[in-house]
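Figure S4 source data
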Amino acid sequence: EYGIRGNATYISRTIENSAKHENLPKTDLQRFLADFYQEGKTPYMPQLKQMSKEKMEVGGVYLISNGKIADYINTNEMFFFKLLVDRSGHGIHKVEIEEGKAAIRNIQHKHTFKLVNNDPYHISVHIKINGSINEFTGNVLKQEYIDKMEKKLEKEINEKCMELINRFKEKELDPVGFGHFAKSKTRHFDQDEWKNVLYKDLKVTVHSDVKIIQAGVIE
C-alpha cells in the first residue's frame, strides 16, 4: 500500500513530481500513445522501482519498439535524455571541478532543432540551460568556479547527448523524434527510406549553452 490516498494517486504523483522537479521527461498516456502511433518517433515510459512495501520511485526509462523493451535509460543518463526529448523543462545535475562539487538544481532548459542539410541529412540540436547552485562542497564559491562549471557542463552535455544519439541510431530507435522533424521539413518524405537508409547516415551535432544565473555566496 502506497500513501494514504491509495496506490493510484501515489504512483501518479511520483511520476508527476519526477517529471516536474527531477530528470524524468514529461510522460503520460496521451504522450505515449501519440509517440506510439506516430511515424518517426520511438515511445518511452518510466520504470517504477519498488524501494519498500511503502515506497516506490522512478528508476529509469524504457524505450519501446515493436511492443517490446528495446533499450533502457538509467538514472545517470536520464538528465541528458530529458534534454533531448523534452523541448523544455527542469532537472537536477551534479558537476565536479577541482575546487569542489556542485548540485545544480532548478535547471530550466530549452532545445531547438535545425535542419542544416537534407542531402545528406544533417540536424543541429541547440540546448540552452539556466541553472542555480544550491550546494557546493568547496570553501568559497567564486565566480571563476562558476565559469568553470558552466564550461564543464556544456562539454558533458555535448558528449553524453551524442553518445545517446549514436546508440539510438545503432539500435534503430528514435525517441528524440529526428524522423518526425525531418518529415516536417521535407516534401515527399519517404518514411521507409528514412527508416532503412537515411536515419543510419544522419549527421547530428549538439551544441549547448549553460548559464548559472543564481548561486550561493560568491567572492
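Figure S5 source data
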Amino acid sequence: TLVQDLFAHYLYSTRYDYARTLREATRALAATIQLDALLGHVGDALVSTLRSDGIAIYLLDSEDGEFRVTWNSVRSTSDPSISTTSPLVSILSEKRRLIFRDEMVAKDNEDHRTGLIADLYLLQAEVVVPLVEESEIIGFLVLGPKRSGDPYFSNDVDLLTTLANQTAVAVRNAQTHARVVQVNEEMQKVLETIESGVVAVGPRGRMTLFNRAAERLTGVS
C-alpha cells in the first residue's frame, strides 16, 4: 500500500504553470459562445492541471429549481441534482467562496452544517467552487480529492477562483445567446405558419422582416 501511495503521488503530482493555464483557458473561453464547448474547455483544463478524482460542473435549471450536472469527467447515469434550497447552495450564496469538505467536517456539528456535509458527501466533493454572476449563484464546480493524495494548495485556490469568475461570465453569455437563438427560431416558426402578413421596418426605413403571408398578400417576393 505504501508503494502504491508513493507511486500515485509521483504519477499524479500536480505541477503546472499557473499563468499559462489561465491564459490558455481564457483564450478557449473567448473562442466559443456554445455552452457545451466552453464547459468542455473548463473541465479539460481542470482535469489536466489538478488531476482530481472526478470533476463535475453544475448549472442552474431555473424552471425546475435545481442545479444539474452539465459536464462530468466521469461518465455516470446517476449524477445527483441539488435543490436551490439545499444547505450547500445556501452556504455558497452566503459565502460566495470555495467550500472545502475537510474544513466543514472539522467544525462544530451544527444542524445546518450537518446538511452541508451530507451534500458534500453526496457529490463526493472535496471542494466546491461557486459560479457567481451578477450576485447570483448560476452554478458550481465540484472536485474530488487529488489522485496524488495532495491537498489543494493556495495556488490551486487562486486558479479555481479566477477560472470560476471567467467561467461564470462565459456561461451567462452562452446561455443568453442560446435563449436569443431559441426565441428567434420560435418566432420564425410562428411567422412562417400564421396567415397574417407581417412586415417589420427598421429605423432607416428598410424592411427587416417579410413573411410568406406578406408575400402572398402583396405579390412581392
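The helical segments are 2-11, 18-30, 35-50, 87-95, 101-106, 111-123, 154-193, 212-218. Confidence is low (pLDDT under 50) at residues 2-12.
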